[in-house]
Amino acid sequence: MKSRCLLIIFLLMSFFCSAQTDSPCGLLEIRGNELTQDGKTLSLDLTFDICHISVGRFESMTLIPMLKNACDSLQLSPIVLNGAHAQKMYHRRLVFKGKKIADGGAYVVLGNESILLGNISYKCKVSYQPWMKKTSFILIGLLKNERGNVVRRYVNTLTDDLYIAKEK
After folding, report:
1. Burial status of residue 70 (CB atoms within 10 A of its CB: 0-12, 13-18, 19 or more)
2. What is the pLDDT of residue 167?
3. Strand 60-68 vs strand 73-75: parallel, antiparallel, or unpaired?
4. Going by C-beta distance under 8 Å and a sequence separation of 6 or more, which residues neighbour residue 124?
5. Rounded to an integer, what distance in angstroms lies between the CA atom of residue 18 and that of residue 80?
6. Which CATH number fits domain 23-166: 2.60.40, 1.10.3470, 1.10.10, 3.30.70?
7. How large is the average pLDDT for residues 44-60?
8. Percentage of the chain with pLDDT > 70?
């Protein structure tokens, strides 16, 4: 009887504790965003505030900004945030395989304890397509374990109707 009561209390506590966790993408802010179109080029100048995101020691979080409408989409270079052990593995890949392979196309790779955490200036230029006129700006978060397998996937629509200013 006592073990049944303890089991029920344990299950209830684990349910309530897991229900209160926030998704890492929910703790992310984007400030000072500026999107401009100049002819055939779309320039993005964004500032990501990631100081409230933390990942486990063996995990890594990949944040992928994405432009999307009903039929087309464009994934931009991701921001990678590594836990302590994952960051050590990243440094090993840097030494043995070089920066291009270690980064894997990421805009920036940071350690969870890095002093650089906070505001990340994200600037890029992409080829402007007509479908980008009415697009959504989405942020996809992939939480990966030590083997690189996706444990959780977060999708956060930041805006449904992205305003792109035209340069004169």
Report:
1. exposed
2. 64
3. antiparallel
4. 43, 44, 76, 77, 107
5. 25
6. 2.60.40
7. 83
8. 77
Residue corresponding to tokens 């978060």? 141
- Closest Cα partner for 58 from 83, 38, 31? 83
pLDDT value, residue 22: 43
Q: For the chain, how big is the Rg over CA atoms in Å? A: 19
Cβ contact 41:79 at 8 Å:
no
| Structure tokens belonging to residue 140 | 């996809």
- pLDDT score of 78 more than 90: yes
Token pair, residue 56, equals 């486990």
Burial 26-62 (b: 16+ CB within 10 A, else e): eebebeebebeeeeeebbbebbbbbeebebbeebbbb
User: Which amino acid would we find at residue 146?
Assistant: E
pTM value is 0.76
Whole-Å CA distances, 156 to 114, 123, 140, 142, 159: 25, 20, 6, 11, 9
Tell me the H-state helices in the chain: 2-19, 84-97, 99-103
Q: How confident is the model at residue 159 (pLDDT cuts 50, 70, 90)?
A: confident
